[in-house]
Amino acid sequence: xxxxxxxxxxxxxxxxxxxxxxxxxxxxxxxxxxxxxxxxxxxxxxxxxxxxxxxxxxxxxxxxxxxxxxxxxxxxxxxxxxxxxxxxxxxxxxxxxxxxxxxxxxxxxxxxxxxxxxxxxxxxxxxxxxxxxxxxxxxxxxxxxxxxxxxxxxxxxxxxxxxxxxxxxxxxxxxxxxxxxxxxxxxxxxxxxxxxxxxxxxxxxxxxxxxxxxxxxxxxxxxxxxxxxxxxxxxxxxxxxxxxxxxxxxxxxxxxxxxxxxxx
Length: 264
Fold this sequence. Notes:
This is Serine protease. This protein has two domains: 43-52 and 157-253, Thrombin, subunit H, CATH 2.40.10; 58-156, Trypsin-like serine proteases (Thrombin, subunit H, Beta Barrel). Helices cover 14% and strands 30% of the residues. It contains five helices and 16 strands. It has helices at residues 2-11, 57-63, 98-101, 149-153, 252-261; strands spanning 43-44, 50-51, 66-71, 76-82, 87-90, 105-107, 121-123, 126-131, 136-140, 168-174, 188-197, 204-207, 219-222, 228-236, 243-244, 246-251. Strand 3 (66-71) and strand 4 form a beta hairpin.
């Protein structure tokens, strides 16, 4: 079932889970095109994400490691997160090859209250590896002003165990409700929710935390441990306004196994 959904998402890659953009991927020219697939990231029920700047304590600290991934080679955007000082994780359907990675860059301070001119962009165009079966890609970032991004913003830890049904989670993602406000800016958000099914499929869990196109590649984080329990990638039952019944993410143990393949 998940494989079928991934194929559907990839066929409309530029318009679905990664979010559509103008032909030139200018981060300040925000995407406002509707999602073209009914199998994409969705808002579940009433939209209740909050600005990441409203977080406190450990969740605020963890949110710093998540950023806006600009993908000019395919004219789209996704979300990515640091898993080490210089390695980011996103979805395979966002960046599936070294050609897709050309020119990729990430801003980890693409947040409310930060002016466009003050956003710091890290080149993250070094393609490490992709895993289509787990919709996961790893890229390496370069330093800016002599500092790697993880040294500035920290990085996330992937859980060694999968999330159980009913567990509390939050998804840190770069987005805004462009269906309601087409000119909105996809600043960093935190979407609270719970796991609907810890075994939605062999590969995935499902949850009711809100996302939209552009949220692909986000970390699904446990509220209790603040560790990554899934790699967000696709939603279920989306309509023409980006509303649906659930979102899904690749299980932590699968993400952990892929990271081990690249020495992380």
